[in-house]
User: Which sequence fits this backbone?
């Protein structure tokens, strides 16, 4: 693979592997009898396979085994059940897992920005104030997108109580919009771009224009597998992957990659954890009474910044 288009195409095309196939007691598996395989959970979002797709991860004891999920809830349950070791996961879900005593640590941001609010192509909704009463799909109430939606609504004097949020897996959103089961959806790319290119939707706003450099997904790992060697391997892999993204692409540009990466809808230049962002997300979850567990969560104990 020699360009960014290949990375995203691989991430989108890998077969779905059910978490039920994972071992119940330990998620590490032998690879060729030499190294243990660290199961790495992800959803098919632009950046989520960078480390393993490019072969940047090298470690004397481990290989990465990518496992594709179609829903955040399934990935979260796999983390809780020790069916995966690492994951790119929505920051609010990671906070809730930690608050539930799941022994995970946040190591880095997977990216910043990278979401969009989309309405049907023929929708009469043209500004935020017209979202009142709309049925809006979100990946989860424990998602960065739900937090961003709240921010969008508040800019017009509205709140989440003024719309009808519907939890929905990202791959299902464009079909639901096409069949008019929902009026809008907010999601991470490339799902919005794909829906737009298919003539199903148009973007009302990109998250980078609502909250520049906001956190979305985090790289998290189970605490018990972490040691200095593994942390360094992950750091090097992330930084090399990031550097691969920054130069100009070579070759024919794919329309999806062009929109997501060349227009900087998703950013990779700052992968360091942002404590203030995590505190904001925690406060939002508490304010909206989404969790009974998270109020006393210590953000500092959750963070193990490797960047």
Assistant:
């Amino acid at each position: 693979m020699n360009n960014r288009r290949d990375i995203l195409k691989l991430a989108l095309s890998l077969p779905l592997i059910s978490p039920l196939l994972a071992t119940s007691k330990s998620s590490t598996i032998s690879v060729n009898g030499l190294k243990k395989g660290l199961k790495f959970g992800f959803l098919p979002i632009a950046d989520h396979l960078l480390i393993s797709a490019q072969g940047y991860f090298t470690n004397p004891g481990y290989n990465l085994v990518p496992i594709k999920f179609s829903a955040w809830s399934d990935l979260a349950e796999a983390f809780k059940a020790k069916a995966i070791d690492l994951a790119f996961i929505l920051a609010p879900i990671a906070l809730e897992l930690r608050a539930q005593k799941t022994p995970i640590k946040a190591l880095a941001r997977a990216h910043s920005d990278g979401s969009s609010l989309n309405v049907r192509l023929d929708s009469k909704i043209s500004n935020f104030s017209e979202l009142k009463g709309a049925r809006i799909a979100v990946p989860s109430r424990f998602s960065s997108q739900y937090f961003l939606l709240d921010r969008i609504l508040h800019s017009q004097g509205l709140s989440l109580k003024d719309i009808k949020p519907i939890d929905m897996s990202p791959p299902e959103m464009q079909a639901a919009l096409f069949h008019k089961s929902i009026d809008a959806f907010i999601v991470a790319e490339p799902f919005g771009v794909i829906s737009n290119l298919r003539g199903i939707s148009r973007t009302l706003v990109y998250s980078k224009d609502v909250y520049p450099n906001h956190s979305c997904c985090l790289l998290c790992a189970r605490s018990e597998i972490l040691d200095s060697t593994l942390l360094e391997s992950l750091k090097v892999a992330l930084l090399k992957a990031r550097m691969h993204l920054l130069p100009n692409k070579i070759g024919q540009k794919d329309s999806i990659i062009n929109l997501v990466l060349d227009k900087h809808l998703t950013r990779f230049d700052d992968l360091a954890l942002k404590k203030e962002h995590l505190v904001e997300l925690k406060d939002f979850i508490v304010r909206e009474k989404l969790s009974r567990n998270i109020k006393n969560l210590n953000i500092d104990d959750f963070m193990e910044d490797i960047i």
